[in-house]
Amino acid sequence: MATPDQGPGVTRLIVTPDVAGLRLDQAIAGLCGLSRRQVRAVIAAGGVWLNARPSRVLSRPVVVADVIDVLGQNAPPTPAAAPLPRLRILFDDGWLLAVDKPAGLACQPPRQRAPGEWTVHELAAARLAARDGRRGELLLIHRLDRVTTGVLIFARQHDAARALATAWGSGTVRKRYLAIVAGDPGEEPRVVAAPLGADRLVPGRQRVAKSGRDACSEIIPLARGGALGLVEIRPLTGRTHQVRVHLAHLGCPVAG
């Protein structure tokens, strides 16, 4: 039997968030514009592969970044699949993956999710799947806020995930942030030690709270000019929203 890599006229589909959770036949119909009857005929003829394996189970649910190959000799012509959103891969050695996270994408699914909305985790998995021909392991190690850009690290093996989790937990990972702030950050570096707790007025946000968890950040001014400044922040602990809350606590919140 021909494999997806060997067969002519293969249409490769990557499962996107808007069809995740659907049956295999429903997902194919939604992704490439075939009717359900056409899709069932293609699957019955052995013309569909799921993650590099032949699949004849119509009702199997699909997940984001699954790879579906539709073999051209068994299927009617299909329109080209929509291109994946861009995501720059900075490093990939089969164990670790580093990507350049853009602003506006959440790392994990938010509570209120727009139809078709990607997360960085899903998009990274889909990018690898499109390249490798199957959905592989991809484990999220840490998170960045939706509005934050920066390097996001994933583990591609469970052993790598355990090693990274140990490094994060022991404090051996060094993180640096750059931020444009509103106000004057001053001239001298300083360390902010202000505990953080949940903001009772704004669900999901943090605030400085005496009864909160210890949080510590080093703030290093880099440039000052007019109403704005540029600072480097080195979190010495890893609390949610720590950088933003500590900068606001100093009177120079993140601009915008």
**What is the straight-line distance between the termini?**
57 Å
Radius of gyration, in Å, reads: 23 Å
Q: Could you tell me the number of beta strands?
A: 14
With strands numbered from the N-terminus, the spatial order across the biggest sheet is 1-4-2-3
CATH architecture of the largest domain: 2-Layer Sandwich
Overall description:
This protein is of the alpha+beta class and 256 residues long. The chain folds into three domains: 11-70, RNA-binding S4 domain (Structural Genomics Hypothetical 15.5 Kd Protein In mrcA-pckA Intergenic Region, Chain A), CATH 3.10.290; 88-170, 2-Layer Sandwich (Pseudouridine synthase); 177-249, Pseudouridine synthase, CATH 3.30.2350. The protein has helices at residues 24-32, 36-44, 120-132, 158-170, 242-249; strands at 11-14, 48-50, 53-54, 67-70, 88-92, 96-101, 139-140, 150-155, 177-182, 190-193, 196-198, 206-208, 216-225, 228-235. Strands 1-4-2-3 form a four-stranded antiparallel beta sheet, sandwiched between helices. Strands 5-6-8-7 form a four-stranded antiparallel beta sheet. Strand 11 and strand 12 (206-208) form a beta hairpin. Helix 1 (24-32) crosses helix 2. The mean pLDDT is 86.
